């Protein structure tokens, strides 16, 4: 006869809909009891969506029945939010912003924030009125990268005015939270935070708002797509094949959310030696071309690993603004021009209902299942010359 441990083992096989992690790993299973052959299980879940509950019921029944037990299931769920999804209500909560661009990556640490900052600065240098919303609530580092760390936000009534650096308006959870404060966010809180960052911030009329998303494909992406019409998505990745697999998830998510894909930024693509400026291949270069073809999009730019890019990020002095003659700054400028050209072709008057999904609030239109696209071919590039600094050039 199965015991409680057997039940828990079975529950480890049940994945939370739209995610790779199990309900046990998420800590959603609050109570497991066994009386006779009836397993009583209580779950705390973050989604209000009926579909999520139904899927879980189905999966849990299947695996618990398989070990010869009946199931009694209880769910604790948050109240459904009053605010309907944008696509359902047709409401745009930030109508003064002409074009919203979602910058995403399949995983953390690939240079998404660095790319957001430099693209935004580059677009501003090309005459656009630009803002950055740092929605990476788990690691908001845009304030540091824009030299705004420790700056006080001006509060007017119940709203806050964005900060400004290098001609770009900026708002971030990092400005609103104490430094180093750890944040553990669950679905409903993320939804609220993102909506507040759009609605309760006094954004001026902007041509483009770049939004630096948390890595991955989750509640934040869905909430954003349901709250405002997202005109374009940009995927940032590094060229290694493992990173490209994660990237596919991100690109699949754009497709599922009906977000037009402006392109892919291949970051840390080769290394530029600070001494001789030779570009050499470290993690691979040019691997995103195939990926872009598969998703019918373009590579916006190949940004090398350049110490000056990191120093610009750490020191709050973006390379595009402070060293516009560098190879990287020129590539960011070119990438920004491609984004602007892409946005020119996305209709200003498109409403969210035209481009974003019509799933009810809280229902994940995102899937973490990677497309079964074939692997991109790595293009090896050799570099000439030798500088003798051990940078890898030969
Ligand atoms: N092309 C580059 N050359 C050198 N350093 C880089 C480059 N791109 C990013 N970095 C550095 O890599 C680190 C991670 O970059 P960044 O914070 O932009 O990544 P991220 O994808 O936003 O990470 P997270 O998901 O954790 O927020 C930073 O220290 C940044 O300065």
From TrEMBL:
One Pfam family it belongs to: ParA
InterPro entries linked: FSCA_dom_sf, MIP18-like, Mrp/NBP35_ATP-bd, NUBPL-like, P-loop_NTPase, YlxH/NBP35
Annotated region described as Disordered, given as residue ranges: 349-370
The protein's assembly and partners: Homodimer.
Gene3D superfamilies: Fe-S cluster assembly (FSCA), P-loop containing nucleotide triphosphate hydrolases
Family: Belongs to the Mrp/NBP35 ATP-binding proteins family.
Cross-referenced SUPFAM superfamilies: Fe-S cluster assembly (FSCA) domain-like, P-loop containing nucleoside triphosphate hydrolases
Protein name: Iron-sulfur cluster carrier protein
HAMAP family reported for this sequence: Mrp_NBP35
Domain MIP18 family-like: 5-67
UniProt KW keywords: ATP-binding, Hydrolase, Iron, Iron-sulfur, Metal-binding, Nucleotide-binding
Annotated binding of ATP, by residue: 106-113
Described function: Binds and transfers iron-sulfur (Fe-S) clusters to target apoproteins. Can hydrolyze ATP.
Single GO term (MF): ATP binding
């Amino acid at each position: 006869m199965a015991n409680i441990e057997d039940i828990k083992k079975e529950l480890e096989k049940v994945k939370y809909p739209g995610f790779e992690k199990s309900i046990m790993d998420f800590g959603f299973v609050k109570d497991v009891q066994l009386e006779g052959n009836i397993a009583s299980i209580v779950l705390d879940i973050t989604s209000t969506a009926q579909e999520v509950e139904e899927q879980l019921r189905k999966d849990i029944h299947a695996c618990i029945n398989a070990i010869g037990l009946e199931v009694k299931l209880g769910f604790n769920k948050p109240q459904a939010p009053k605010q309907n999804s944008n696509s359902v209500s047709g409401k745009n909560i930030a109508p003064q912003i002409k074009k919203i661009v979602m910058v995403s990556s399949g995983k953390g640490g690939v240079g998404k924030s660095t790319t957001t900052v430099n693209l935004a600065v580059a677009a501003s240098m090309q005459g656009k009125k630009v803002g950055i919303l740092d929605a990476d609530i788990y690691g908001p580092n845009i304030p540091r990268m824009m030299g705004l760390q420790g700056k006080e936000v001006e509060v007017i009534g119940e709203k806050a005015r964005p900060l400004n650096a290098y001609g770009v308006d900026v708002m971030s959870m990092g400005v609103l939270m104490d430094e180093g404060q750890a944040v553990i966010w669950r679905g409903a809180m993320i939804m609220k935070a993102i909506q507040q960052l759009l609605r309760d911030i006094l954004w001026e009329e902007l041509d483009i708002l770049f939004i630096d998303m948390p890595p991955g494909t989750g509640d934040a992406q869905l909430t954003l797509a349901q709250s405002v019409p997202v005109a374009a998505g940009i995927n940032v990745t590094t060229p290694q094949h493992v990173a490209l697999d994660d990237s596919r998830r991100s690109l699949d998510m754009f497709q599922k959310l009906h977000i037009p894909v402006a392109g892919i930024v291949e970051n840390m693509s080769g290394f530029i030696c600070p001494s001789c400026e030779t570009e050499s291949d470290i993690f691979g270069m040019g691997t995103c071309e195939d990926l872009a073809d598969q998703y019918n999009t373009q590579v916006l730019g190949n940004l090398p690993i350049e110490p000056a890019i990191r120093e610009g990020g750490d020191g709050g002095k973006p390379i595009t603004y402070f060293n516009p003659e560098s190879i990287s700054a020129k590539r960011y400028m070119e990438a920004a021009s491609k984004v602007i050209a892409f946005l020119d072709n996305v209709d200003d008057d498109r409403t969210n209902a035209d481009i974003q999904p019509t799933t009810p609030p809280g229902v994940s239109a995102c899937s973490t299942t990677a497309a079964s696209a074939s692997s991109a071919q790595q293009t090896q590039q050799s570099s000439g010359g030798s500088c003798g600094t051990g940078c890898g050039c030969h």
